[in-house]
Structure formats: C-alpha cells, structure tokens
Specification:
Blueprint: E1 2-10, H1 19-33, E2 39-47, E3 50-59, E4 62-66, E5 73-77, H2 88-95, E6 101-114, E7 119-133, E8 136-148, E9 152-162, E10 166-176, E11 180-187, E12 192-199, E13 203-213
Antiparallel strand pairs: 1-13, 2-3, 3-4, 5-6, 6-7, 7-8, 9-10, 10-13, 11-12
Amino acid sequence: MSAVKDEKVTTGMGDDATTQTVALSLNSALDTLVKVGQAYAEIHWKGNGKEFTSICVFNAQGIIYDNMLSNIILIEDNSKGADLSDQPEAKETMAAASASATRTYTVVDLTIKGLWPLTHRGWIKVTHAIHYKDGKIFANSCTANGSMTLGSADAKAQNFKRTNGYSQITWAYGWATPTASFKIGFNKGSGKFEASVSGIGSKGSGAGVDTRYL
C-alpha cells in the first residue's frame, strides 16, 4: 500500500511567469546548454492566426534543443507496487521458517520521455524493502534515485516507522526541464519528505508514505 500526496505534473508557464522571468530563465538555461561548436537562434512560428517565438540550440547536424518542443515531457508511470522478491530462489528462502528473508517493492518507477525528439530523457525510482524472520520484521530499507538529461531529476526516501508487522518509508521526488525547478525538503515536524516545483517549463513532483505489511 502506498499513500501518495501532492503528486503533480505541469507543462508550460505557471501563473507566476512573466516576460522578464521567461527571458531570465531562458538565458540561464542557454548559458548551460550551448557548448563549443553550437549556437542558438530564434524560430518564429505561425499557427491558427497566432505568432510566437522559440529559441533553439543547434550545430552542424541539426537542432539539439528548442525551448518549446524540448520542454514537452511525457511521463510513463510503471509504479505497480510490484513485489520484486517474486523469484524461485526468494520463495524457497521465504519458505524456510527459521531463515531470514527480504521482500522488495517498487514504490515509484517513472520513465521521463521527451516529445521532441521522442527519446528517453530520464527516470525516477524508489524501492522499499522489508527484512523479516520468524514471522516478524526486524529491519527495513529503501533506495531513491533519479536522473534526467536536458533537465534534472532526483528522489529521496528514508525509514519512517517499523513494527514487527509492518514497515513504512517516507519518500518524495521531483523533475524539471531547464527553465523550471523543483525542491525536495524534509519536514522535521512530520518527519516526512516534501516536494514542490516552480518556474516555467515542464515539471513534476510527488511525495507520500509507503506502507508494507508482512
């Protein structure tokens, strides 16, 4: 069981975006993106009676980044709470009453894809493991990682509560394209991780407590 809160994905400008904010964000992103042998230019678009401009980074082989097309992100959620210990060897170990065993669950499993070009841009994964013996949980553990090209992604998790019969971890993640940002913080009052997003461009975050029973 996984209790999820504050999970959100946004694309484009937020309510706090202004022309000046957009310009500063793009300039900052371009300073990082443009490398030796590359350049950037403005592309003027027309459609449905409207005109707008995007900025692209290119080299001799073609366009590398465009602040409009490259900021459109597709999220593939593979989080199914799968029991990764569902293997023959694990079942044999778990069947032995006097032996210790481990069950590992996938809490978050996201694939980050770019719409243009349609490529794999990154991933985020959080797992939760319970270690038990003689019908009692004696330890728990977790992992949290994330990575993203042309942007950033990260995840954090730690133990929240454990008894002989169940285990809990607190987790949070965030991802953002170059002109947006995210923040993962720890609330000492609640003892839980929290995540938030800001800026323009595509971004997403999620946080919660995952509970697993023996």
